[in-house]
Amino acid sequence: MPRAILPLLLLLLLGAADAAWARTLSATIARVTTPVASLEGVEMRVHWPAGAAEGELQLRAARVDAPDLGYRFRDVDWRCPLRRDGQGWRCDGQVRQQRGAPLRLALALAPRMANVDASLSAAGGGGRPRLAVHYDRAAPDITRIDLAAVPVAWAQALASQAWSAGRFSAGTLDGTVRVHAPRDGPLHVQAPLTLDGIGFDTADGSMAGEGLDAELRIDWRALAAGPRITVDGALRGGELLFGNAYVALPAHPVAVHVALQGGADGWTVPAFSASDPGALEVSGHAALAGDGTVRSLDLSLRSDAVAALPERYLSGWLGIAGLTGLTLEGALSAELALRDGSLHALALRPVTLDVAAPDGRFAFHGLDGELRIVADGSADSALGWRGGALGDIAFGAARLPWRSRDGRLALREPVRVALLGGELALSGLSLALPRDGRGMEMEGAVAVEALDMASLAKALGLPAFPGTLSGVIPRMHYAAERLAFDGGLSMRAFDGEVRVSSLAMERPFGVAPTLSADIVLDGLDMQSLTGVFDFGSISGRLHGQVLGLRLVDWQATAFDAELHTEARRGVRQRISQRAVQNISSVGDASFVTSLQGQLLAVFDDFGYRRIGISCRLANGVCAMAGLHPRGAGFAIVEGAGLPRLDIVGYNRNVDWETLVERLAAVGSGDVAPVFD
Known about the structure:
Blueprint (H helix, E strand, L loop, with lengths): L4 H12 L7 E10 L4 E10 L6 E13 L4 E15 L2 E9 L6 E7 L5 E8 L7 E7 L5 E10 L4 H7 L3 E15 L7 E15 L4 E17 L2 E11 L2 E4 L2 E4 L5 E10 L2 E11 L3 E10 L4 E10 L5 H12 L6 E13 L2 E15 L5 E13 L3 E8 L1 E4 L2 E3 L2 E8 L2 E4 L3 E5 L2 E11 L8 E12 H7 L8 E12 L2 E4 L2 E6 L2 E11 L7 E12 H7 L8 E12 L2 E11 L8 E3 H10 L2 E3 L2 H6 L5 E14 L2 E6 L2 E2 L2 E7 L7 E3 L3 E3 H13 L8
Antiparallel strand pairs: 1-2, 2-3, 3-4, 4-5, 5-6, 6-7, 7-8, 8-9, 9-10, 10-11, 11-12, 12-13, 12-14, 13-16, 14-15, 16-17, 17-18, 18-19, 19-20, 20-21, 21-22, 22-23, 22-24, 23-26, 24-25, 26-27, 27-29, 28-29, 29-30, 30-31, 31-32, 31-33, 32-34, 33-34, 34-35, 35-36, 36-37, 37-40, 38-40, 39-44, ...
């Protein structure tokens, strides 16, 4: 049963205290009204047997309502042995209501009702938890309530006046509550409290707390326009969840201040602040709708040491973005304004800020300057960095001049960034931050000029090979976590060309990024290509395509690939003994006759007319094919001249992981030919 019933019952007893004593005294009262509460259906009976040292008091109330405090009780029943205590009276017994476990209520009346002391504790609880009330007739408008290890759930009804969705589940309260209830003024509650191990949540799970310790000073006034609440103090330890925001409070005190004013259509927050020394200083004001949604928010924050922010205050948002483990170094300040849930203004000012994503996904070093975004009007700013990396691909310093106009952010001029011995050029870049239910959107143009392929291959963990990468993407567009590119990239490598088109990425900075593209190979010199990848020697020109390529978390899950050679005047077409062995291993192939297999021991290389192989990857299986059907299999190598060597594949469906293992074995030289 909620424990605030104690001061309400005391008011009734005070009203009946002057009744004339008799062996049995009974009273029935239809309604009792006090500044704090009203009681209905009240019955009181005092029975004192003749010559007995004590009597019995029974008090019943059909309804007890304290609307300002949020308490409503039904069928309240208190019985206790009534005895003299010097010149006063004392009564101690169980009190029950319609729902809830019984409690123990003890009452002491001083002579001439100079004061009243009462306490409420758990039945059989040894005195703890304990709620004690003191009333002084000299100050009839003031009631003092002392709390000792009182479960926070006892304050549920009062807390629901300010936060109807909240439910307390754990923790205790210690402190003193002073209730000032003047007949001609609003109810006023002051409470310096110590909170220990507080737990709470909401039915929808959007807000929760656990293990929260605090020292708070609460001032609560029941004004005609709505309750006015002020909270000052410090939080120490515990965890908090508000929507996507997860906070792990430090063990040292975090000073807090909140002012709230209730109204018919919600709450205004004239001021709030929090101070985590050295890590974060926050202040601002806000307005909330009746359902708790944010109508407006103005927030300022400053961090002189941002290293603690990801773990203490940002882990919820970082987890959603797939960036758990992100690290920060340096300093940061910001101002944020929201209106009706949408961004109205933002000013972000990093100071020598280093950002590093987990697993080395990306990094920025020495972020400095200012980034400003405004929903109305325009504002110029500039943000730069000393360097950074995308995976193992390092990029150079840059400074981006921005202009914000009507909620969009755009580059004021093209920007060039040193990358892999060449340059990356950005132009026409603009961003629209989340608004009106839409996520962030971005568009612009990008060009790469003379990127060194040897450096790129090394960064990707591939064998180094010569060449340069250049290309222009006239338009890239990011929306709904998908980055799409118009146009394509062209790479000069191995005396031929590689063209990439239909390039797109999903969740580029999130969990399990996905890349899709079409790739065309045109006239690559196979002598150089096979030399770089240590495949054995093949001379000739390679053509082909990889359509519908799809990488999930940088692992291939689907594509339709076809590679073949084309004869070119003046270009020899020869294949070495080792290349023959590798092709037979990778393609799960064999030689047409055992005689051809014996030729491997005699000749170092062979002439060929054509080479062709294809793989359609789906559901972890590679559907293999070659130049054309040949018996029960498919031709991979058509020999030419003498000695003639043909290679035929027979397994049309190969497990993709097995095929990857074979390719790895080729790189290590651990292969052997297969004879038929």
